[in-house]
Amino acid sequence: MDELHAVRRRADLTAVSVLGFAIGLALGAVFEIRFGLWSLIFPVILAALSIPVGDAWTGSATRHRILRTGEVLPNHRSFRRKVATPPATRRRSRVP
To answer: Rounded to two decimals, what is the model's pTM?
Structure first.
């Protein structure tokens, strides 16, 4: 039953993505007909707005969950461990 739920969830996410793509495609065609090359500004504005909105949306939810539960999320940017780089090996100079 758990596996069926996971499959349905993935199918729902895929369907939403495909639907969003189709709607964006149709809107892009309409804007291209109506505004010409100026229609390319709309996706740029959306992309520029999505960065701070996405960071605020997911960042605050993650911070709230960490503070509420005390959970450590290894994939969260504030908990990523920096991998130690091995010391540089010395190359011996070859003297003929």
So the answer is: 0.47
Establish if 46 belongs to a structural domain. yes
The region that residue 36 occupies, defined by phi over 0 for left and psi between -120 and 50 for alpha, beta otherwise, is: left
CB neighbours of residue 57 within 10 Å: 11
| pLDDT tens, residue by residue, 66-90 | 666 666 555 555 555 554 555 555 5
Structural domain total, the chain: 1
Per-residue HEC secondary structure of 27-81 comes to HHHHHHHHHHHHHHHHHHHHHHHHHHHHHHHHHHHHHHHHHHHCCCCCCCHHHCC
Residue ranges making up the domain that contains 32: 9-70
